[in-house]
Design brief:
The chain is an alpha+beta fold. It has two domains: 103 residues, F0F1 ATP synthase delta/epsilon subunit, N-terminal (ATP Synthase, domain 1), CATH 2.60.15; 47 residues, Single alpha-helices involved in coiled-coils or other helix-helix interfaces (Up-down Bundle). The protein contains two helices and nine strands, in the order E-E-E-E-E-E-E-E-E-H-H. Strands 1, 2, 3, 4, 5, 6, 7, 8 and 9 form a nine-stranded mixed beta sheet that branches. A hairpin with a 2-residue loop joins strand 7 and strand 8. It is elongated, with a radius of gyration of 16 Å.
């Protein structure tokens, strides 16, 4: 797995942006699919995805692997252009020349409704502060994480 780079759970900043230059501009096909649509099917030179245990860096020629994904920011590079998507969980399949992401949901930054994301953040924070034993703390925590990432991505569009 020489091409994998677990960069921890911080938001990826594509620290290896020049790494594929040594591969002569090699690319791989990235497909992002949700239950309602195919969001993306394009060649990319580099990819970082929010794996269950931290962000995973993937370059063309990566060893085959499967991974569960968590809520987070997917970042991919095409030439000098850096692109971002919100992924809300799912699965990742890596093959040497293709990466397929089956996401529960995915959004481009320009598709994010900032006001709605802020409302969701406020609602999740209120639930987490609540003393009500009926509140599902795990669900509220995931909702807060998703809202914060949506707000962050909307600010980058």
């Amino acid at each position: 797995m020489a091409n994998a780079a677990n960069t921890g759970t911080q938001n990826p900043a594509m620290p290896h942006a020049g790494a594929s230059a040594s591969q002569g501009g090699a690319s791989m096909l990235l497909r992002v699919v949700t239950p309602s649509r195919q969001l993306l099917s394009e060649p990319v030179e580099e990819l970082q995805v929010p794996g269950k245990a931290g962000y995973l860096g993937i370059l063309p020629g990566h060893a085959p692997m499967l991974s569960e994904l968590r809520v987070g920011e997917l970042t991919y590079r095409q030439g000098r252009n850096l692109h971002r998507l919100l992924i809300t969980g799912g699965f990742l399949e890596v093959l040497p020349e293709q990466v397929t992401i089956l996401a529960e949901a995915a959004e481009r930054p320009e598709e994010i409704d900032l006001a709605r994301a802020q409302t969701a953040r406020d609602r999740a924070e209120k639930r987490l502060r609540s003393a009500d034993p009926e509140v599902d703390l795990n669900r509220a925590t995931v909702a807060l994480e998703r809202a914060l990432i949506r707000i962050q991505l909307a600010g980058k569009s």
